């Protein structure tokens, strides 16, 4: 029987208070050294890799299925099922596929599987759901030979390569039955064994896996444990070896617990403050509650004052309890197109008050600040701290934190004047932020999809479109950097903190490579002896 370490039990009581746990939780340690059990906050939605672009879905199914390219731990693009690629002309990409790869049932992987997968994705979920956005630019997939495929795009598509990381390749079949698991046959490091919705996904090592890094564990179980406290309890009791999305209140105690390692890296998620860009704004008034004729956030001096009010170091260190870093750019600095050498954003409330007075608001004004309270760890707490920061420059903010389902319904309708939410770009490329968040809304249905606060700058629009037509990487990088820098200079969106991705692991059982995209991959797990 795998009894828990006494000091670990003390830590468990400190973290959870009076929690009643049965024998299965206290003593349900992994069955043998070659097996690993992982407690995840959320598991896959299906065994069909094409039904959703949700992070937890991709994280689970990437253990079974491969894409043509993949991301390293710091979002660097790497070859995967495609060994190499080239642009034939402005609207044609050619990919040379890896030879000797077999599906888990032993059949060879070929270009026909790639063509089938790209054609299938738009049919799985109607509209823009699933993975359709990642193949939208592809007009046709043409098989050249068994190990060569070409994608012809509707127009120049310089971001296609980055987007293909999310396009999982499935076996070409006339009617794949993923619902029963029969079609969950991939080329990845682990093969499907069983899955129960909102329960466990059981995987078994594929000894025929083609990759240079081989799977270390014979069997890996991903156990869905939505409750933060229950997930921590399972780790401390020894019934799981690794947990993801460690809640901030538990981190300090876990760091002090013998035999537990806490792993923390910057994630792709940045909290951003979004000021309304419309002529008039619904929830801004003077200090007596009277509507303002002009939206103050349209004045760049007011937006700069908002940024100067924010103590980013304090937010990261105190409010987020060290589980974030000050954000000086709206995306992580390692991303393609984020301006290099961007300076540190100042915290200077006195200068903020001066700018407000210069803009015609010496006594400030009142505004409602909306945010989520259940989407990210610390979202409501950071939002409340932003309210206090705005008070330091004379703006009275009524902070309203809502469940994400309510927040985004109202946000989409344009009900808000000032919001804070998280933004993460899975492609590692700032072009997506330019096209979806910063390009003017209503000009072209392909652009401004998430520009709910109606920021509009014709120069940013021009740069965005030019970057999508640029064929050379250096030219495209310069254009994207120029567009992001312009939006930063205008404080169109105001970065607050870059959230951390946090895991905790039983150090005597395994080591784990943490990733910016927060995916928990079995291939990144190693028995402790191999560290």
Rough shape? globular
Return the average pLDDT rounded to an integer: 90
First-to-last CA distance: 26 Å
- Percent helix, as a range, is 25-40%
**Which residues sit in consecutive blocks of at least 5 with pLDDT less than 50?**
6-31
Q: Could you tell me the radius of gyration in angstroms?
A: 25 Å
**Biggest β-sheet description:** 12 strands, mixed
**Tally of helical segments:** 16
Q: How many beta-strand segments?
A: 20
Indicate the proportion of strand residues: 15-25%
What structural class results from the helix and strand content?
Answer: alpha+beta
Describe this protein's structure.
This protein is α+β, with helices and mostly antiparallel strands and 531 residues long. The protein contains 16 helices and 20 strands. Helix 1 (6-16) packs antiparallel against helix 7 (228-237) and helix 14 packs across helix 16. The longest helix has 17 residues, at 473-489. The two termini are 26 Å apart.
Detail the topology: elements first, then pairings.
Elements: H1 6-16, H2 23-27, E1 35-40, H3 55-61, E2 69-71, E3 77-79, E4 82-89, E5 92-97, H4 111-124, H5 132-135, E6 138-145, E7 148-153, H6 160-163, E8 190-195, E9 200-205, E10 219-224, H7 228-237, E11 242-244, H8 248-255, E12 260-275, E13 284-285, H9 300-309, H10 312-319, E14 324-326, H11 349-358, E15 366-372, H12 379-391, E16 396-402, H13 404-413, E17 418-423, H14 431-438, H15 458-469, H16 473-489, E18 494-506, E19 510-512, E20 525-527
Parallel strand pairs: 1-10, 1-11, 15-16, 15-17
Antiparallel strand pairs: 2-3, 4-5, 5-7, 6-7, 8-9, 9-10, 11-18, 12-17, 12-18, 13-15, 14-18, 19-20
Helix pairs in contact: 1-7, 9-11, 14-15, 14-16, 15-16
């Amino acid at each position: 029987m795998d009894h828990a370490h006494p000091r670990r039990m003390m830590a468990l009581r400190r973290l959870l208070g009076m929690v009643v746990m049965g024998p299965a939780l206290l003593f349900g340690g992994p069955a043998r050294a070659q097996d690993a059990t992982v407690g995840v906050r959320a598991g896959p939605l299906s065994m069909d890799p094409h039904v959703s672009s949700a992070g937890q879905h991709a994280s689970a199914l990437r253990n079974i299925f491969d894409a043509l390219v993949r991301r390293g731990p710091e979002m660097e693009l790497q070859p995967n099922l495609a060994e190499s690629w080239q642009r034939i002309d402005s609207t044609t990409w050619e990919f040379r596929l890896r030879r000797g790869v077999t599906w888990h049932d032993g059949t060879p992987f070929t270009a026909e599987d790639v063509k089938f997968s790209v054609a299938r994705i738009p049919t799985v979920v109607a509209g823009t759901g699933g993975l359709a956005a990642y193949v939208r630019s592809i007009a046709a997939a043409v098989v050249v030979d068994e190990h060569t495929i070409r994608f012809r795009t509707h127009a120049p598509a310089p971001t296609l390569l980055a987007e293909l990381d999310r396009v999982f390749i499935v076996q070409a079949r006339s009617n794949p039955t993923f619902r029963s698991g029969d079609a969950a046959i991939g080329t990845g490091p682990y093969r499907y064994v069983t899955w129960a919705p909102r329960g466990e996904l059981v995987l078994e090592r594929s000894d025929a896996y083609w990759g240079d890094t081989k799977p270390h564990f014979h069997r890996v179980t991903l156990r869905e444990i939505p409750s933060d406290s229950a997930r921590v309890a399972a780790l401390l009791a020894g019934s799981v070896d690794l947990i993801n999305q460690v809640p901030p209140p538990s981190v300090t105690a876990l760091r002090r617990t013998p035999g537990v390692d806490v792993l923390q890296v910057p994630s792709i998620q940045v909290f951003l403050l979004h000021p309304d860009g419309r002529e008039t704004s619904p929830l801004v008034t003077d200090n007596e509650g009277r509507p303002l004729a002009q939206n103050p956030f349209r004045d760049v001096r007011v937006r700069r004052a908002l940024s100067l009010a924010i103590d980013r170091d304090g937010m990261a260190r105190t409010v987020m309890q060290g589980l974030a870093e000050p954000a000086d750019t709206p995306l992580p600095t390692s991303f393609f197109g984020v301006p290099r050498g961007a300076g540190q954003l100042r915290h200077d409330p006195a200068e903020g008050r001066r700018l407000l007075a210069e803009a015609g608001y010496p006594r400030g004004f009142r505004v409602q600040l909306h945010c989520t309270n259940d989407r990210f760890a610390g979202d409501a707490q950071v939002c409340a701290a932003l309210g206090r920061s705005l008070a330091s420059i004379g703006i009275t903010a009524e902070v309203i934190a809502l469940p994400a389902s309510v927040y985004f319904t109202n946000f989409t309708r344009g009900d808000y004047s000032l919001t804070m939410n998280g933004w993460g770009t899975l492609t590692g490329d700032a072009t997506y932020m330019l096209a979806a968040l910063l390009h003017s809304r209503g000009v072209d249905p392909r652009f401004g999809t998430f520009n709910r606060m109606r920021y509009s700058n014709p120069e940013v629009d021009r740069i965005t479109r030019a970057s999508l037509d640029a064929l050379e990487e250096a030219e495209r990088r310069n254009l994207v950097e120029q567009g992001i820098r312009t939006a930063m200079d205008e404080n169109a969106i105001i970065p607050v903190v870059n959230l951390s991705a946090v895991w905790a692991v039983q150090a005597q059982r395994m080591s784990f490579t943490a990733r910016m995209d927060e995916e928990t991959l079995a291939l990144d797990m190693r028995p402790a002896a191999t560290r």
